[in-house]
Write a structure and sequence with these properties.
Helix content is 27%, strand content 46%. By secondary structure, it is α+β, with helices and mostly antiparallel strands. The chain has one domain. Strand 4 and strand 5 (56-58) form a beta hairpin.
């Protein structure tokens, strides 16, 4: 009776209009090569936040896999960053 547990990101969703990245992580517990439990957790990653000077500070993606970093680089264009910054400034006013 050997138990093992494995987790991996199994779904990536890009949400408009500011291209938030939603990550779904599947965690599987396996006993004797048979899955006995499957759980999902979700995380949403925004492209950044405003600092006290209303400058957009990019989210630190160094803790994510190179695949997720590549997705972020592809979808968080300068145009999207500008629109998101304008949205945050308007929201905080």
């Amino acid at each position: 009776m050997a138990l093992s547990k494995a987790s991996s990101i199994d779904k990536i969703i890009i949400r408009s209009p500011y291209n938030n990245i939603e990550l779904r992580t599947a965690t599987v517990i396996v006993e004797d090569d048979t899955p006995i439990s499957l759980n999902y957790s979700h995380e949403t990653v925004e492209l950044g936040k405003l600092n006290s000077s209303n400058e957009l500070v990019d989210t630190d993606m160094s803790g994510y896999s190179t695949e997720i970093q590549g997705v972020a680089a592809a979808v968080w264009t300068n145009d999207v960053k500008t629109k998101f910054k304008e949205y945050l400034i308007a929201k905080n006013s």
